[in-house]
Amino acid sequence: MRKRPDDPSIPRPGEGKRGEDGYLGYLLRQAAGAYRHRMDRALADLDVTSPQFAVMTMLNAYPGISNADIARLAMLTPQTVSVIVANLERAGTIRRLPHSVHGRILQIELTPSGLSLLRRCRERVQALEREVSEPLSEADEAVVRRWLAGVARSES
After folding, report:
1. Closest listed residue to residue 121, CA positions, set 61, 63, 41
2. Fold topology of 25-124
3. Per-residue pLDDT tens for 102-144?
4. Which of 22, 25, 71, 111 is the most buried (most CB within 10 A)?
């Protein structure tokens, strides 16, 4: 028999095996999901999703990158990036321009309105990051950042 989500025998996030006694991998996934949900709520009234924010951030940080590079950097599938790029272009947030040397190659860049939108998104995400990291000392935050980066590096 399937239990209801509000069933008291199922621990809430941060409790039981969903808490400090849980598997580390599960806790990372749970935290990432909670963060993503909070980011989506913070960006919702701007009509921007977390994946769209990631794509705009990578386009701004690494001008001239390909869709495949965006997918790797934003941890999205190439198919998802293609859909996001098409939607952002339709909204006037990005544009595709011919490469200055290789005319057949189209480079993607943020439009002025896209840069403005990215700035507003970034303000909200930075506020969320401050809120999430607030309980940590600077030294603890540095340890967490080093650890998370190390976990990611061990993947490659």
Report:
1. 41
2. Arc Repressor Mutant, subunit A (1.10.10)
3. 666 778 999 999 999 999 999 999 999 999 999 999 999 999 9
4. 71
